[in-house]
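Model the whole thing, not chain by chain.
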Amino acid sequence: QVQLVQSGAEVKKPGASVKVSCKASGYTFTGYYMHWVRQAPGQGLEWMGWINPNSGGTNYAQKFQGRVTMTRDTSINTAYMELSRLRSDDTAVYYCAMEVTIPYWGQGTLVTVSS
Amino acid sequence: DIVMTQSPDSLAVSLGERATINCKSSQSTNYLAWYQQKPGQPPKLLIYWASTRESGVPDRFRGSGSGTDFTLTISSLQAEDVAFYYCHQYYNTPWTFGQGTRVEIK
């Protein structure tokens, strides 16, 4: 069965970077785009972008252009999302998600940005 | 981008009564999912392809609609159904979501 297991919670200072991992299993990792979605406290769901694990190609939401980098390591079936120049309003739960007929989601990673 | 508009923003329903949530898409799609989210938990998939119930989801949850107009119906509200509910289109990039509907007990 499809499983997406994310890395643990992070606390970062403003201006720092954070890198969240998402280990995939139960399907062909290189066959399906990996999306990243975030949810700020008390807010809705916001799409950040996707990576094509086969080619490494990416497509980022305009809001995050220049601050987000999505990468992957096909040898360990893992996708990464790095967000730089963190601000307090980047405090959120970050999810990886993909679709194989139906959407599957990771468990989420809480990133707290605080001085 | 496909804009997803949910209504209402919140809903209070008596136990055992029906709850209905609507979602309107700015473009036609049938790659439409419904999620339930409780505090501190990730979204839980209830319905995909607009009307297919995910395995293990109680049959009081029903998705309907096609094209641009979709509905999630909880036929007999239970206490454990108190949560936020979101619609999601995964047909086009960017993925887009409704703003969420809060369901409470009246």
